[in-house]
Every structure is written in C-alpha cells, then in structure tokens.
Design brief:
This protein is about 30% helix and about 20% strand. By secondary structure, the chain is α/β, with parallel strands linked by helices. A hairpin with a 5-residue loop joins strand 6 (about 215-220) and strand 7 (about 225-230). It is globular, with a radius of gyration of 18 Å. The termini are far apart.
Length: about 290
C-alpha cells in the first residue's frame, strides 16, 4: 500500500504530487513507535552497504512525518561534513552540492559501505521530503574523518553529539541510521556504545535483519567490497516491518528488529573507487582473484 496525496491532504497539508517523493511506503509496525510519547531517539542499526536499508529508512522518515511527527534525521557521517550535508538539502544547484559532497574524504576514500550510492539516494530523497517538513534537518554525528578512530572514544563522541540535539530540538523525534553495534544498549566490548550515552527511557533501538544476500562493506580481515554478509533474521520468512520484541534480535541488546523481508543487494561507493586503490580494496580484489 502506498501513501497517497489524499492522505496528506486529510491531515491538513498542502503539497503537489511530486512531493510524495516517489510515493513513500508505510512501514508495517511503525505505529508502535509513533505511539510511544516518551521516545525521543530511534536507532536503526544496520549492516552497512546495502540498497535495502537506506530505502527502508527513507520510508520510515516519511511515515513518521505523515503521522505528525517533527523529525530530525541523524546519520553516521563525520561531523566535518555538516555544511556539505546542509547544502545537499537546500542548495539551488544540486549538482554542484553533490559534487562537493562526493569529494570529501568520507565519500571519496572510505569504502566501508557508508558512502554508498544508496546513501546518496537517501540524501536526495530527504531533500524531497523537505516539501512535507520544510525544516527537516540531516545531522552528522560521527567523529570528523581522520582515519579510523579508537573505538571507545568514537562511540562516546557519537553519543554526546546526539545528546547535543536536545537543547535545539527538544520536541523532535530523532531518527538515527547507524551501524548496528552503535545502536545497542549494552556492550560486551568493555566500553559504552553510542546509544548508551542517551537517556535509556527515551531511546528505542532496532536491529535491521535480512534474508541473506550481499552488501558492500569492510570485513574483519580488512578487505572491502561486495560480499555475502548482513544480519539474517531468526525467522527466514519474517515479512517486512518493525517487530518490537527484544528476543527477535540475532545479537545485542535492542528493542526489536526492522525486518527487511528480502535478501540484501550491495550498493557501490557513490564517488566511485579512488585511484590508487586503498589497501582494503586491493586486498578484496586479490582475495577474489585467488578464489
């Protein structure tokens, strides 16, 4: 089922047909989140590098706005990109703004899936969603890009960055797309994760699950490229939607899952592959050639 123009008009909003941003799809089960008045931050913990999760996140943002929520979007992008992200949403010359964004290190040199074509499409769709909520903001909350930071300080910085939104956006619902580890409410790694720096009664964390497939990501061996990974759902037949039951999560302490209900497909880097190739990409290609 699609969100149609009449739905928005019934809520007292005026818009033209193109503002439906390609007809956002309601997310089954999302009503259970929108009904929780105490929830201020919603974490969507993903496995980076798929086409499916950014698309589902876009629909979740659209669904929240359609249900009268005032939304701020937080993405696991370096805080140093904030001006470029703002420009992506507001610039009259979109091509120029996009080119400037893709020249930044986090898009040009980092090949862990966060700078994918799907993530770029997400930003473009958020630009369109500003027709529904003109002050919709994208907030970058990762540490400034300077090579891989130490894990514990990075999560602490991410948590404090999100917490800094409270004074400026006290009534907003903050929808957060991040790696699934940062969204967890308890850690087995000996340090607090990003979500753990926020008031426990005001957060809700979901782990994105799938039916297998491929994503473009960086492996534990240091290789980066499309590979068979993700977070398979405990129930291989679980349909698309949100299920608020902590026991459904394949791993980690969260409040439930966002089941994609389909296999993942990999999304390549939006800026293309840098030249010369970084070590992670060279390693991936050499491993593939040896198979």
């Amino acid at each position: 089922m699609r969100i149609v123009l009449a739905f928005f008009l019934a809520m007292g909003w005026t818009m033209n047909a193109s503002a439906a941003t390609g007809s956002c799809s309601p997310v089954p089960g999302a009503d259970e989140i929108w009904s929780k008045a105490s929830v201020h931050w919603v974490f969507i913990g993903e496995w980076h590098g798929s086409n499916e999760t950014p698309a589902a996140f876009r629909d979740l943002v659209c669904d929240a706005i359609a249900h009268g929520k005032h939304v701020t979007v937080a993405l696991e992008r370096p805080t140093s990109e904030q001006a470029a992200l703002d420009n992506m949403l507001t610039a009259r010359d979109l091509a120029k703004a996009q080119n400037a964004l893709l020249r930044l290190p986090g898009w040009k040199d980092v090949l862990d899936g966060r700078g994918s074509e799907a993530m770029l499409r997400l930003l473009l769709s958020l630009r369109e969603l500003r027709r529904l909520q003109p002050d919709l903001r994208v907030f970058a909350f990762d540490a400034p890009y300077a090579g891989p930071p130490a894990a514990a300080p990075r999560d602490e910085a991410m948590g404090h960055a999100l917490l800094s939104l409270r004074p400026a956006k006290p009534n907003d619902l903050v929808l957060i797309l991040t790696g699934n580890l940062h969204a967890m409410q308890a850690s087995k790694r000996g340090y607090d994760l990003a979500a753990m720096y926020l008031p426990p009664k005001e957060i809700l964390s979901l782990e994105v699950t799938d039916r297998g497939g491929e994503s473009w990501s960086q492996s534990s061996t240091g290789a980066c490229g499309p590979s068979k990974d993700g977070v398979p759902d405990k129930d291989p037949k679980r349909p698309y939607g949100i299920f608020l039951d902590p026991s459904l999560a394949p791993f980690g302490k969260v409040d439930g899952v966002l089941s994609l209900g389909v296999p993942l497909t990999s999304s390549a880097p939006a800026a293309g592959e840098p030249s010369p190739l970084p070590p992670c990409r060279s390693k991936f290609l050499s491993e593939r050639a040896a198979q």
